[in-house]
Each structure stands twice: as C-alpha cells, then as structure tokens.
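Why does this matter for the project? Reviewers at the last site visit asked to see concrete outputs rather than summary tables. In response, this paragraph embeds two records directly. Each consists of the residue sequence and, immediately after it, the corresponding structure tokens. Nothing has been edited or filtered.
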Amino acid sequence: MPDQELFDRLYQLAQQLGYRVYDHLPMESEPVDYPFVVISDVTLVPATYKDSLGGHFTIDLHVWASGDNRYLVAQIINGLSRLGRGLFLTPHFRFQGRPGANQQQILVDQSVPDTVLMHGVLTLTYDLC
C-alpha cells in the first residue's frame, strides 16, 4: 500500500527533524505542548499503466503553534517542505517529489474559545514511480 508507506516515512522523517508528530489532532484529554505537527490526509489520483501502478499523491501536514509564533510556524513549514523534493524511497515504492506542485499557507485559528493559534498547512505532492 503505497499511501501507507508514504505516510509512515514522512512521519518518521518529521520526527527525525525534531518535531512532535501526531497522526491526528490531539484530543482535549491528550494535552500537548506547542508547536506540533499532524500528518493527516493522503490523496491518490491513480494512473493506470499497462504493467504497473502509478499516480500522484498529496499528503497534508499541519503545524500548530500558539498565536504569537507565526515565524516559528513558517520555519517548521520550510523545514518540512524539504521532504517534498527529490527522490523519496520506502521499502517497496519510489516517490518523486514535485516541489512546484506543493502548497502552503498559514492561518490564524480561533476555534478554541479565548485562544489564538497559528495553523500552518503544507501539502506535499509526489509521483509514484
């Protein structure tokens, strides 16, 4: 399953970069310190070839920090965006990063009462080759 291998490898690499990484937004019963990274949705647009599986994958990485840390969110997104460049190997698949197709944004989030958070969203794009 290429999507799971891509997810697992990005999770591992983000941890190696020194970030606290989760596969879901922590619940209220799971208190965490800011900043942290959530690796979430993986999307596949399949391409069928005569003798192999191919396609384009996108994977979303979310960076959360307290409201006064926009610069820190930008730094983390910049560090994580390097994972979307070049050839990317997993145990069974090869992915080619498409940095020109990556997207990033930083949002102010006030969904928690009386709290301002910075929410960075990075979408990395890969070709399965």
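We now turn to the second protein, recorded in exactly the same manner.
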Amino acid sequence: MKEFVHELSTVWASGVLYAATPVGKSIASLVLGILSIVSPYIGILFGIIAIILSAISLKEIRTRYEEGRGLAIAGLICGIVGTLIYTLLILLFLFALFAFNEIDSGNIIHFSTNNI
C-alpha cells in the first residue's frame, strides 16, 4: 500500500521521475486571493498580486508537470472576485462623491426677508 501511495505522488515526465509537489506560488495565490475578498481597503492590491501569482503558477505547472493546479485556479478566481468587488466599490464611491458634490454646489438663490 505504501508503494502505491508513493506511485501516486510522483510524475513521470520525459524519462525522469519527479516528485509532484504543489508549487509555492499557487498556495500564495490562494492565500492572497482569499485575503483580497476579506480585507478592506488593500484587497484590490492583494487581488492583483493573486492574479499575477496564479498565472505564473499555472504556467510553471504546465511546463514542469507539478501539482497545485486546483490551488492556482482557486487563487485566480478569488483574486478576480476580490479585485472586482473593490473596483466596483471604488467606482461607486467616486460616482456618489461626484453626484453629491454637484448637488451641493448648485446655484441656490437666497431670498432676504429684510427689505431695508
């Protein structure tokens, strides 16, 4: 049984036996992707970094036959969701800021009750 588990955890590529371990970048992209959703204010930065790391990790997984593809895809999805959430919040904030600023700076005519 131990030999069977060992065979499942290795990858045979181009005549060389490699140990299949998850790429560290895919784990980091998942962590940053989750942080991009739950952390306020800097979530957009975490999301961008998670997207970049997961793209690099997916490329390395394809070329080196390593594991961690699911982690990288989950990090990519979480990074995209976190980035979209905070981008929409920033756009909504800017829209509200400009909309309410236009209302406040409108031409208001003040009538005086003092006729003197």
